[in-house]
Amino acid sequence: MGQADPSTPGALAGIRVVDASRILGGPFCGQVLGDHGADVLKIEPPQGDDTRTWGPPFSTAGVASYYMGLNRNKRTMRLDFASDEGREVLLSLLAQADVFIENFKTGTLEKWGLGQDVLAERFPRLVHCRVSGFGADGPLGGLPGYDAAVQALTGLMSVNGESDGGALRVGMPVVDMVTGLNAALGVMMALRERERSGRGQFVEAALYDSGVSLLHPHAANWFMDGRTPERTGNAHPNIYPYDNLQTGTEPVFFAVGNDKQFGILCRHLGVPSLAEDERYATAKARSVNRQMLKTALEARLAAFDGPALAEQLVRKGVPCAAVLSVPQALQHAHTAHRGMLVELPGGYRGVASPIKLSRTPASYRHAPLTEGDGFLPT
Q1: What is the CATH number of domain 16-214+337-351?
Q2: Is 277 tagged catalytic?
Q3: Which of 49, 147, 176, 243 is catalytic?
Q4: Where do the domains of the chain lie?
Q5: InterPro entries, from UniProt (predicted)?
Q6: Which whole number is the average pLDDT over 117-133?
Q7: Which distant-in-sequence residues (6+ apart) come within 8 Å of 168 by Cβ?
Q8: CA dist., res. 121 & res. 116, Å (int)
Q9: Quick one: pLDDT at residue 342?
Q10: Is residue 373 scored above 50 in pLDDT?
Q11: Residue 36 needs a FRET pair 20 to 30 A away by CA distance; which of 148, 185, 273, 361 works?
């Protein structure tokens, strides 16, 4: 389980963050920084972050699980930035801060007299991070953006789903999550550069940009041959067998990336001749002749128990896995072994940080809170 009271400070100990963002991308960025020791103060509008109501399920305090998954290791307070008093409190907090995270609509901070230029002049060492839908300018500049809509607009939906079905949303808010990671990465770059220059800078992470960045290998394929990428279900567009294949019991996902792995697979299945067949002997041939190969493999796989076969093959060096449900994945022994679960007093449970540092590991100091007392020292 994740640490509740670590004996060593995190890598970002001493960094103060004001997180005035809402929903997902910005709060996830703030949580990443908080997990690694930053002192994060989350500022919410008077009515609270919208995701407090994005349920069910809800905690005993009436807070949605969605919010609880994105806002640990933060103290909280509520401010009305539309009021003079609220803006003055924000300015006093920023005077002590290293990082400011926000995702206000373009023009909102400017309307309050808190635009990027104003903040940069008043707080020259401040790293100001904005998470936005499309950036401030351009054909879509300033427009609101949500994960699923950006998935649709950036082509992600068009390549997700079965080959004979329609475009399908990826089952997780992948654009929001990657935008949060890009924001955290940008903040770290800016903090590192500040050590050299003594100056902060503006960091922008847009959902649209992050969505486009996720198009590999489909974008690379299109750049190369000009063909519009198509949906291939579970199958990889460039590699085979890189697909969900039916066994005698449950399906197994095979991720065979080279000739050696394919040879091991065929020998284990008792069909070594498949690896020598010119139709399947090379990665290129297997990809071109994938439908015939799938038929041949599934005919042989019908004699095997899926989960047991996956366990045997992966230990022989063939990447593959049984297809688990979310509860099965969270309860897997390796999930616990890797420290990917967090449990804190009061019943909080969550997914831990995947970033492993040997001397300054992530820590989990408190669960998401409902109210805070201002920007206090760590």
Answers
A1: 3.40.50.10540
A2: no
A3: 176
A4: 16-214+337-351, 242-330
A5: CoA-transferase_III_domain, CoA-Trfase_fam_III, CoA-Trfase_III_dom3_sf, CoA-Trfase_III_dom_1_sf
A6: 97
A7: 157, 160, 161, 162, 231
A8: 9
A9: 96
A10: no
A11: 148
